[in-house]
Design a protein that fits this description.
Layout (H helix, E strand, L loop, with lengths): L3 E6 L10 E6 L6 H10 L5 H21 L8 H13 L11 H20 L6 H9 L6 H6 L27 H11 L3 H7 L4 H12 L3 H5 L10 H4 L11 E7 L5 E7 H19 L27 H14 L3 E7 L6 E7 L4 H17 L6 H8 L4 H14 L1 H9 L2 H5 L5
Antiparallel strand pairs: 1-2, 3-4, 5-6
Helix pairs in contact: 1-2, 2-4, 3-4, 7-9, 7-13, 9-12, 9-14, 14-17, 15-16
Amino acid sequence: MGQELRVHQVSKHKKSEPGFLLFSWPSMQLHEDASRWIARLARTNSQRHQRNMAYAIAYWHTYCLTAGIDYRRACADDLSDFGDALAEAVSEKTGRPLSAGTISKRMEAVIAYYIAGEDHGWYLTALDFAHALATNSKSDTAFQTTHAQPINDSVRHLIPRYERSETDIRPLSPEALVSLLEHLGPSEEESGKCGHFQRDRIVAEWMAYVGLRLSEIVGDEDNQGLSVHQFSTLNFDPNHLFDHSIVRVLGKGAKYRNVAVPNWLILRTKNYIATERASAVAHIKHPTSKLIVAHRTAGNSTRGKPITGRWYEHLFAKACLEAKLIAIEEIHAANSNQKRRVEMARHSPHDLRHTYAVMTYFAERELGNLEPWKPIQAQLGHRYLRTTIETYLSYVSVMNEWGRDLRRMSVRELAGVPLA
């Protein structure tokens, strides 16, 4: 077996079909235990979860190969050392150290992998470990001194603990939100004057004013995203722009929920469908039903096709930099131990969802609602109210000036919708 394990996606596949295999590199020998486990995950988990687990196990096996560890006899001490190695690792994608959350998820994946391995007979059981420790034969000396505990539920204390803090929540201030939206695209009232596209701004408004996740708008491998069909039969009153209508969206865990959407945003979205989007898909014989597509000015191979969440993240970061919403960070240069200072976007698209939650909290409090968390929970699609409160309470408790800014700048001004 080689010194590295790599993940190979077989093809586009249905949720119930295995699509990720693990091979040693460069021999390209299939790793049967790991691939079989990923295949079992396909029965009940999303493709994204399968992919994340596949990469976590690939990292683990690569670590074992490099350290000369027989993965079938790996123990808690080895898992602990793996966690230490991850804490010193740098992400190839960002050049920054791995977060505690990433480290924890990878270690949790390894534990689940070994629990399954014990059930299917390729990993030593706790009784095997106990027997080896009780044996006095010289052949087991190394095993006794280094393999004191199997990898199972009992070693979860080795996983680094991480808790959300107010630093994890980065909602935009009212002024920053207005600036970002202007750099993403013109308001509907200005679009005809300058000829610029509204699409990127509309996506941001669905996150900032409705609280949707990016995947719930543009879609991904587990989610259709918003569809044009949802708006073709949607009835709303254009004369009452600040009333709300109900739109049904597909959220995390393949669960649907109803969300309240301001009528002005529905009107803006329908106008996008009738003009900008219609022009983009005009040449396609069987156009996609997804709402968000590439502009008419895109290349022939992408024009009118659905855009990806990753591509929108790129456009969003560019708008942040243009709006001077930046942070200076030190990152590791590629293939080097040296660091360099770079300007990074201070916000991600998900921060707009946080912005919605915080903005709604202060608006509900201003209206006298003593339980503002409940409507926020329903709109965001959190299963438990506790999740909503724990995510945002520490932030809103110390950011009362955010509420004052919101009262000073009305939602109409934030959205750029005329008062008349």
